[in-house]
Amino acid sequence: MAYTKPIPDPEQYINKPFWDGCKDGKLMLPRCLTCNRVHFYPRVICPHCHSDQLEWVECSGEGYLHTFAVQHRAFGGWAEEVPFVTAFIDLKEGDRMLTVLRGVDATKPETIKIGAKVKIEFEAASDEVSIPFWRVV
């Protein structure tokens, strides 16, 4: 079945290592060499200390559910999946990512627990791009 959701451009210079990692099944994030913190979304300066001394590191792909919302309306390819859950994930490495959460029942939000352990997974959107999602484990 064809992937019908929006597909990012993996060739943008700022976030290319992120998308290259996703394609290889790895969560790659920028880490500041000055304050030693990772951050998401990728950018050219550290949002914590404003240093431009960054390196890309492979992260664990583990975290915890910080908060979530059930989406009942969507457009494009996402309309086919409503209801679905969007969530903020607190990464083991210390920052937070926005995602679509898998492995939960969006029709029963009372069963979704804040603080639940989650792990990253990747879905191939094309031959060049894999999209990261998180799943409750």
Strand order of the largest sheet: 3-4-5-7-6
> What is the overall number of helices?
1
Percent range for β-strand residues: 35-45%
Query: Rg to the nearest angstrom?
Result: 16 Å
Average pLDDT: 95
Helix-strand pattern, N to C?
HEEEEEEE
In one word, what is the shape? globular
Q: How many strands?
A: 7
- Helix share, percent: under 10%
The biggest sheet amounts to:
5 strands, mixed, barrel
Low-confidence stretches: none
Number of domains: 1
Through-space gap between termini: 26 Å
Question: What does this 3D model show about the protein?
Answer:
The chain is mainly beta and 137 residues long. It has one domain. The chain has one helix at residues 16-23; strands at 27-32, 54-59, 62-71, 84-91, 96-102, 117-124, 130-136. The strands form two sheets. A five-stranded mixed barrel has the order 3-4-5-7-6. A two-stranded antiparallel sheet has the order 1-2. β6 and β7 (130-136) form a beta hairpin. The protein is globular, with a radius of gyration of 16 Å. The two termini are 26 Å apart. The model has no long low-confidence stretch (mean pLDDT 95).
Write a brief caption for the model:
This protein has 137 residues and is mainly beta. It contains one helix and seven strands. The longest helix is centred in the first third of the chain and has 8 residues.
Task: Lay out the secondary structure.
Elements lengths: L15 H8 L3 E6 L21 E6 L2 E10 L12 E8 L4 E7 L14 E8 L5 E7 L1
Parallel strand pairs: 5-7
Antiparallel strand pairs: 1-2, 3-4, 3-6, 4-5, 6-7
